[in-house]
Amino acid sequence: MGLLSWLAEQKIAEAMARGEFDDLPGKGKPLKVEDLSGVPEDLRMAYKLMKNAGYVPEEIQLQQEMVRLADLLAACEEGPEKQALKKQVSEQRLRLNLLADERGLLTNPAFRQYEEAIRRKLE
Q1: Pfam families attached here (predicted)?
Q2: Residue 89 contacts residue 69 (beta carbons within 8 Å)
């Protein structure tokens, strides 16, 4: 153990002895552990920063919008409204396919291998 680690451990032990950790918010509750095993190690920090900043990639926004539109379609009766919703779904699907093509997902062997599972998960 290095000197800095030893010093940090000593400071923590002293604070515990003084009871400084006794009334912390969330005491006795389980920690929220994020599973980042699916994110490559070199991208995890960037992923966490973007997630904490509230950034959502455009393809995820499009998928969320498509789910919302699908719910509206299911609740809508036949008529001009339903036709307009169908048109919006088609436009969203086209935009999503264009994004996938721009980013090379359609030619990526890993994406092709897992494409069906990914699409099911997003839907």
Answers
A1: DJC28_CD (PF09350)
A2: yes
